[in-house]
Write a structure and sequence with these properties.
By secondary structure, the protein is α+β, with helices and mostly antiparallel strands. The protein has helices at residues 2-15, 22-36, 61-66, 86-90, 145-184, 202-208, 212-215; strands at residues 41-47, 53-59, 75-77, 94-96, 119-126, 129-137, 190-193, 196-200. Strands 3-2-1-6-5-4 form a six-stranded antiparallel β-sheet. A two-stranded antiparallel ribbon has the order 7-8. Helix 1 (2-15) packs antiparallel against helix 2 (22-36), helix 1 runs parallel beside helix 5 (145-184) and helix 2 (22-36) packs antiparallel against helix 5 (145-184).
């Protein structure tokens, strides 16, 4: 019960952060997922529309501390990824509770990489499209279905907020473009509500030699 309440508080807090930059939203959701699953490391990667390219968006703070790789790779081809890319290829959560044991999907870790003992990765869907891959690592005990649920809830919530944030940004950009065209047009433009003038552009004022208040 305490864990559920903590998760709900974190998701509510995430919703209140919609005006924050995307990297802050992603980092917050990731750190909360790491904390609530008692993991020590985690990551989030965005997936392009072709589902062939992954762009690393965030690593947990502990992963950043432990990682000794100087030039961290940010963009990956899906086909070239190792075990962590199986969540994308298999389109389902993948748990590996003994990361040291032989595994046909492993391709080794680069020198300086964080030591991985246990690992969970899963895809985040938008309809049928995979839009993110999220992962956790090094929980003291085995990962299970409850960890999948926690990570899924946080990352799905994150994606929903990112979508709303991007929609708002697109709307604002569209309105800004409309306003620029409206104000800089070389013709008089009136906006009307029924038979009432509710707005006009600068060219209107020049052509009629009056103020905006006189027209509206």
């Amino acid at each position: 019960r305490q864990q559920n309440e903590s998760r709900l508080r974190a998701i509510v807090a995430l919703g209140h952060m919609i005006d924050s930059p995307e990297n802050e939203l992603t980092n917050f959701a990731l750190e909360e997922a790491v904390r609530l699953t008692d993991s020590s490391i985690g990551y989030v990667a965005f997936v392009d529309r072709t589902e062939k390219i992954l762009t690393m968006q965030a690593w947990s703070s502990q992963a950043m501390k432990e990682c000794q790789i100087q030039d961290r790779q940010l963009i990956y081809e899906a086909g070239a990824t190792g075990l962590w890319g199986e969540a994308l290829r298999q389109r389902r959560p993948v748990i590996t509770n003994d990361y040291k044991s032989p595994n046909q999907y492993k391709k080794g870790l680069p020198e300086g990489h964080v030591d991985v003992r246990r690992h969970l990765s899963l895809p985040v869907f938008d309809g049928e499209q995979i839009v993110m891959i999220a992962g956790l690592g090094n929980k003291p005990v085995d990962y299970d279905e409850s960890d999948i649920q926690q990570l899924t809830l946080f990352m799905s919530g994150l994606w929903g907020i990112l979508q709303r944030k991007r929609a708002r940004a697109e709307l604002a950009a569209s309105e800004e473009l409309y306003r620029a065209v409206f104000e800089h047009a070389n013709d008089a433009i009136f906006l009307m509500n029924g038979e009432t003038f509710i707005d006009c552009n600068t060219k209107t004022l020049e052509m009629f030699g009056c103020t905006r208040d006189q027209i509206i």
